[in-house]
Amino acid sequence: MTSDAAATPPRHVFSPQGPRALGRRYSRFVSLAKIALPLIALALVMVLVAWPQAQSEDPTFQVSLAALPEGDAGDAAMTRARFVGTDAKDQVFVITAERAVPNAINPERIRLETLQADLTLNSGAWVSMLSVTGLYDRTQQSLTLLDGVDFFADNGFALHTASALIDLAGGTAQGSETVRAQGPMGELDADSFRMEREGQRLFFKGNVRMTLQPGNAL
Fold first, then answer.
1. Which domain holds residue 43?
2. 144-165 pLDDT, tens per residue?
3. Residue closest to 126 by CA, chosen among 162, 94, 98, 84
4. Per the structure, how many domains does the chain have?
5. Residues 70-88: pLDDT tens digits?
6. Out of 69, 104, 174, 195, which could bridge 73 as a Cys pair, Cβ 3.0 to 4.6 Å?
7. Are residues 122 and 176 in the same domain?
8. HSE of 154, CA atoms in CB hemisphere, 13 A
């Protein structure tokens, strides 16, 4: 004879309110999560934003580009820099400098110190320019020479002036300060000059004075 307890399968004992209570707790958890998670994310963003500002409050940790000299980008400075390009006639020019400092705002403008620019013509002739300081604009392909400029050519021609503007792409140069030119024929002084066709044509203006060497014809 079997008992009723043995014939009845075992049952788990739950409170009649158990499933409903669990559902209500889960709903409250989801509702709180919808509010809490965005707040936590917002707090993390605020921490990330505030952290660099808090760090910069330390006066020993501040770096201000505005406090640097114009064009000085600090660690961006290069020593023994070398730039190579071509003009409109595919003639190669090379600019070397003991120190080159890209502009902090426009890195394509580079301040040069103790520089030399060499242009080799397709004919094989060359023109060399030396200066104490200069400004190389890579976008405009222009070179501004300052604080004393010397031009030399392989034909014995030399030109000395205080400053000059070189159009590297067009192969021209000009200066608006007193200039002295020297060559096999003699010497020439003027108030300004303009050079075209990579030095093949020269124009001088203002108080032009020429001294010819005896025995040399024009």
1. 16-62
2. 999 999 999 988 889 999 999 9
3. 94
4. 2
5. 444 445 789 999 999 888 8
6. 104
7. yes
8. 10
